[in-house]
Design brief:
Helix content is about 35%, strand content about 30%. The chain has five helices and seven strands; from the N terminus they run βαααβββαβαββ. Strand 2 and strand 3 form a beta hairpin.
Length: about 160
């Protein structure tokens, strides 16, 4: 049972977007310059470019976040910047955020969602496959050095 709501981006929560993602990156990888730039200015790099950011919120606490960033194809969005508070992991918050993005994408008639990931994130890869994402080759100019896989969900 979901005990939180999923809300759209509001500038009030921009620091939560940054903090959640920086913590996740430092825990599992490292922060790349591209990450720092996007995370510190989500309105500029995501919202103003036609993207979307969602937050899982319980009362006054932001539990997690995710973004849909536009790609060169206006009907394909990158599912990215998903992070959940460390003490809230394992409660399916990320799965609820992902389902929200899939439902949102279908409602807005997107053709596909794509994402970059790393094989070492076995739990994440399992969840992506569970939701129907299929692996694609990673292009040589991938925006993330840490990514060794790319996946897509056709809608």
């Amino acid at each position: 049972m979901k005990t939180f709501e999923i809300i759209p981006f509001d500038e009030t929560y921009a620091t939560h977007f940054y903090d959640l993602n920086i913590e996740w990156l430092k825990t599992f990888f490292y922060v790349e310059p591209f990450d720092e730039e996007v995370l510190s200015q989500p309105k500029t790099y995501i919202i103003d470019k036609g993207g979307h950011i969602f937050f899982a919120k319980k009362e006054d606490l932001i539990l997690g976040t995710v973004a849909l960033m536009p790609t060169s194809n206006p009907l394909v969005f990158e599912l990215t910047k998903m992070a959940v508070l460390p003490n809230q992991r394992g409660q399916h918050i990320g799965q609820h955020l992902m389902q929200h993005c899939i439902d949102f994408a279908k409602a807005h008639q997107f053709k596909a969602l794509m994402l970059y990931s790393a094989r070492k994130l076995e739990n994440a890869i399992y969840i992506y496959r569970k939701y129907g994402f299929k692996e694609l080759p990673v292009e040589p100019n991938s925006p993330y050095k840490r990514s060794d896989m790319k996946m897509e969900l056709r809608l």
